[in-house]
Amino acid sequence: MGKKDDNDGKKYEDFNQWYNEIVEEAGLCDKRYPVKGMNIWTPYGWKLMQNIDRETRRLVNETGHQEVKFPLLVPQKEFEKEADHIAGFEDEVYWVTRAGRNELDIPLLLRPTSETAMYPVFDLWVRSHADLPLKIYQMVNVFRYETKQTKAFMRMREFHFFEAHTCHATEEGAEAQIKEDLEIMEDLSKKICMPYLALVRTDWDKFPGAEYTVGADALMPTGRTLQMAGIHQYKTNFSEAYDITFEDEDGNHKNVHQTTYGMAERLVGAIAAIHGDDKGLVLPPEIAPIQVRIIPIIYGDEEKVLTYSEKIKKRLEEKGIDVDIDDSDERPGSKFYDAELKGIPLRLDIGSDELEEENVTLVRRDTGEKRSVTKEEIVDEIGSTFEKMQEDMYERAKEELKNNIEEIEDLSEIDEEKIYRGGWCEKESCGKEIEDITGRDILGIPYEEEDFEGECIHCEEKTDTLVYISKTH
Ligand SMILES: [Zn+2]
Q1: Centre of ligand 1 from the C-alpha of residue 1, in Å
Q2: Above 70 in pLDDT, residue 315?
C-alpha cells in the first residue's frame, strides 16, 4: 500500500514501529508489566474498550442475549471432551497444577475460551424445548500461550474477550443465529468505523470443533488482514461430546445445535491502526473516551477565558457529551499536540477573540477542518459533526479496503501486500498449494454469495467459487 498523504508517512513506511509507539504514547496501554504478552490497561485505553463493550452489550441485549460470568478455571476432564477442540488449543493452554504446597488432584486450566467451562452446565440448564433458544454471553479475560511475537491488543497471551454462546432446537435456528450475529457485527462496525469482509474459512482454518467458521477480516495499513471476529456453527459437535440434550414437543431427546460469536480487544488495535496518522490516534466520536476537549488559549484575559470555557463545558456535559478541559500551563501548541495524539474527535479552541465574539473554534481531528460556531449553536453543531465524522471515517476506511482488493485470474499475479480475489476449485490439496506457493492464507469464501464464473487460479478447473487471499497479522 502506498502512503495516502504526507501526514501518513511513518504509518505506511514502518507500520510496526508506528503502531507499537502510538498505542503507548497515546495512553491506551502500559507495556512494562513483567510478563510477556500481558499488558496493563491504562485508564484511557480501558475506557475505549468499555465504550466498545457498551455498544456490543446494547446490540446483544437487544437481540435477547443475557450476560453471565463463568469461573476462570476449567477442570482438565471437561476440557478434554471434544477431540478437535483439545487438538486446537492444547499447545496454548496455561495449567494450574498446584495450590499452596499441594499438587491438585484434578489439574485446572485457565480458559482460552469458555466452551469447555460452559457446556457441562448447559446440560443442566437446558431440559426441554421451552428452555430454547439459550443465548448468553460474557466479557472476560482469556489466556492463550501465543508462540508468535506478541503485539499490543493484536496478539496477547492474556486478553479481553467477548464470547456469546447459543443453543437451539434445530439447525435452522442455529443458522438464523449466525445471520443475527453478522447483523450485530455490521451494526457494531458502523459504531467503530471498521469495515470488514465476512468470509467462510476453509476447513483447515476453521475454529477447533466448529462445523464452519465465519471470520470478519479488516484491512490493516500493511495491506495484510486482521481477524476481528469469529462466528462459529457447531451443529451438534459439542452437544454430543457434552451430552447437551432437550426434550422436544413429542417427548424425544435430541442434541441441541450450538453457535458462538467471539471478539477481542483486537478491535482497539484495529481502530488505532486503521484511523491513526502520524500525529496520533483518530477515534470515532461514538466510542471515544473523551469526545471533546476544550483548549483555553490564555494570553491576557485569563480569568474570563477560563470562566467562559467552564460554562461551555458544563453545557456539553448536560447533554451527555464526554468533555474535558486542558487548563494546564502548557503552550497552546503542546495542548493541540496532546489532543491530536490521543485522537480526541473534536477540539474547541477558546481565546480572547472567541470570548469577545461569544463563539468557539471547532477543530475536527480526522480532517483538521476548523470553523467558528456561535455559543448557541455548539450543542447542535457537535451532534451533527459527530454524525458526519462517523460516516466519513467509515467511508474512508471502506474505500481503502475496496482499493486494496485486486481481481486475479492466476496466482502468478500475487506479488504485493494486498487482498486478492479469484476463483478456487474448493479442493483442499489445491488450496494448500495456493497457500504454500504464495505464502498467504486463503481467508475464505464470501458469506454473502458474490456472482462469479471462472477458473481456479491454480489448477484452472472451472468454478463458481470465489476466495479472498492475503497475508494476515
Ligand atoms: Zn484448484
Answers
A1: 28
A2: yes
